[in-house]
Amino acid sequence: MPPTGRLAPTPSGHLHLGNALAFGAAWLSVRAEGGRLLLRVEDLDAGRARQDVAEAQRQDLRWLGLHWDHEVAPQSTRRYPLDGIPVFRCVCTRATRHMLGCHCRVKEHDKGAWRFDTPRGPVEFVDRACGPQTFAPDEDPILVRADGEAAYPLAVVLDDHRDGVTEVVRGGDLLQATATQVKLYDVLGWTAPSWLHVPILVGEDGKKLSKSHGSTELRALRAAGWSAGRVWEVLGPLLGVAGLDPAGFDAHKVARGTFRVRDDGSVQAAPTQPGSG
Q1: Alpha carbon distance 236, 17 (integer Å)
Q2: CA-to-CA distance for 1 and 174, rounded, in angstroms?
Q3: pLDDT tens across 88-147, in order?
Q4: Region of residue 88 (phi > 0: left; psi between -120 and 50: alpha; otherwise: beta)
């Protein structure tokens, strides 16, 4: 059966080259198999999400040539029940958990965040680009915050299942987070999607691209005279394709590791940090 993938931008900042890399890989992967691509606006963070940014992101995606088949309901309109998930309430701060440990699992609190009572043991899965992976899941991550807002690990699993997503393509910074999501799929009795994580792009300062790297935003590049074709000339080699051509896409050819985006928009392999590897 052809796959169903998704583009899931967060409308708290404008899209940059790192977003284009991940979304381009998602588009290529689905189109190469004649699948279906969804757009889902991940606007859980009401304090940071902006409708004007969401619309600008849609425009950027269209400019890149990344058209989707259907836009599903945004996260801000959805509910995130904890049915079937082992959880406990926790009143500890991050500092308290780190310094003193947390004993909330054996207590009965009537307030606080809901944490995932994570089944112990490592998680094994296969990433389509990086190969077999083994990670320990995060220890009891928050699924619903004290204010009632769902957290990313819960929302992404429930949304992908409800939307019928069968393959997840995203940035390599989320590779390890996959372990917690696999555990959630397991306790809910659902089949997990396939996984594909693309290289991490960092700025000249060595930090992962974000809205603070304004010169790498797509709207800034467009204003500087870049075409969508030039974006794919720069990013295509990291995805193992020449331009935006799904006919040539093979997940095994996707690059691994971290790459640095220069101020002129070019991309090069980032130097290995001392003691890494």
Answers
A1: 12
A2: 26
A3: 999 998 888 888 888 898 888 889 999 999 999 999 999 999 999 999 998 899 999 999
A4: beta
Nearest to 66 by CA among 11, 2, 13, 15: 15
Q: Does the CA dihedral 217-222-224-230 come out positive or negative?
A: positive
CATH 3.40.50.620 domain extents, the chain: 4-79+147-269
Look at residue 272 and give its three-state secondary structure: coil
**pLDDT tens digits, one per residue of 185-235:** 999 999 999 999 999 998 887 877 766 555 789 998 999 899 999 999 999
Instruction: Return the H-helix or E-strand segment holding 50.
Output: none
Q: What are the beta bridge partners of residue 70? A: 38
Global pTM? Answer: 0.91
Q: What is the CATH number of domain 4-79+147-269?
A: 3.40.50.620
**For residues 169 and 196, is the Cβ–Cβ distance under 8 A?**
yes
The residue type found at 3 is P
Measured CA to CA, the distance from residue 40 to residue 197 in angstroms comes to 18
